[in-house]
Amino acid sequence: MKVLATSFILGSLVLAIYLPLVVTSSKTLAIPKKLQEAVGEVIVNATTCTVTCGLGYKEETICEVGPDGVRRKCKSQRLECLTNWICGMHHFTILVGEEFELSCLSSDILEIGQEAFRFTWRLARGIISINDEVFKPFRANSYFIRFKPAQEYDCGTYRCDVQLLKNLRLVKRVYFGLRVLPPQLVNLNFQQSLTEDQKLLDEGLEVNLDNHSKPYHPKWQKKVASAVAVGIAIGMVGGVLVSIALCNVLRGISSNDSLKSL
Fold first, then answer.
1. Is the dihedral of CA 119, 124, 127, 132 positive or negative?
2. Cβ(151)–Cβ(179) under 8 Å?
3. By CB distance 3.0 to 4.6 Å, which of 79, 105, 154, 185 could disulfide with 143?
4. Spatial distance between the Cα atoms of 196 and 218, rounded to a whole number of angstroms
5. Around 54, how many Cα atoms within 13 Å sit in the side-chain half-sphere?
6. Any bridge partners for residue 136, and if so which?
């Protein structure tokens, strides 16, 4: 009985789907004349957003397209776009006494003027974190913070929120992790750690890297290696000379013994 009931239900569903198709297929749809002559605006080209996070711009090309498919009266327009308003964390490490600047707006957005935005800065002093509970208000009304010069007290995480003044819409949030180190603690001059080939490449010169570059060795290591090589060579030569001398002595002794026995 269950099998029959299931078969009946499935058959009814198939019949309900099939009947409308049969009825509509026997009739041709008549498109009104006004609709056939209609002209509409269509986006024929669009660029990606200028930024991956925060407020950016994109270019769109719109054309009128008629029944013949020909594009007419094309025009380009620049529109605001927002893919993601959270921009993550940017890390910076500087030395005490250096001048530095944190900026939370891109140059293309600044073209319309910073007056169109509201900037709110908050600071988690002394730590690197994105936990909003540890941030406290930081007095800055501009889109940038400038350190002239930077001190150890300035280290921490700075958070910048950008809102549109016309509707207070949050369009960007970015974090800056700033470390300020004293010069005595670490040497950040990476030029000293480069090999000779890497220094030449950094200066824009061509270097043959077909043979793997040899690691850099200090001069004192080269001197020790040279001394060891010379010592080994002298020892080997001295050993050969001593061996020859011993052989000659033993031959002389054996010849004397043979003469005495005669």
1. negative
2. no
3. 105
4. 12
5. 20
6. 123
pTM (2 decimals)? Answer: 0.54
Taking only the tens place, the pLDDT of each residue in 47-81 is 888 888 888 888 999 998 877 778 888 888 888 88
Contact 176, 160 (CB under 8 A): yes
Sorted by sequence, the CB contacts under 8 Å of residue 58 that are 6+ apart come out as 46, 47, 48, 49, 50, 78, 79, 81
Structure token digits, residue 48: 């990606």
Could you list the pLDDT tens digit for every one of the 262 residues in the chain? 544 445 445 445 444 554 455 445 445 566 676 666 677 788 888 888 888 888 888 899 999 887 777 888 888 888 888 888 998 899 999 999 999 999 988 776 777 777 888 999 999 999 999 998 999 999 888 889 999 899 999 999 999 999 988 889 999 999 999 999 988 765 555 556 667 766 666 665 555 555 444 455 556 566 656 766 766 777 676 666 767 777 777 777 766 665 555 5
Q: Which residues pair with 103 in a beta bridge?
A: 144
Chain position carrying tokens 């900037």: 119
The C-alpha torsion from 93 through 97 and 102 to 108, rounded to 10°, is -110
Spans of all domains in the chain: 38-82, 86-181
Coil/strand/helix, residue 6: helix
Range 86-181: architecture per CATH: Sandwich (2.60)
Nearest to 174 by CA among 69, 51, 64, 71: 51
Structure tokens at 206: 């061509």
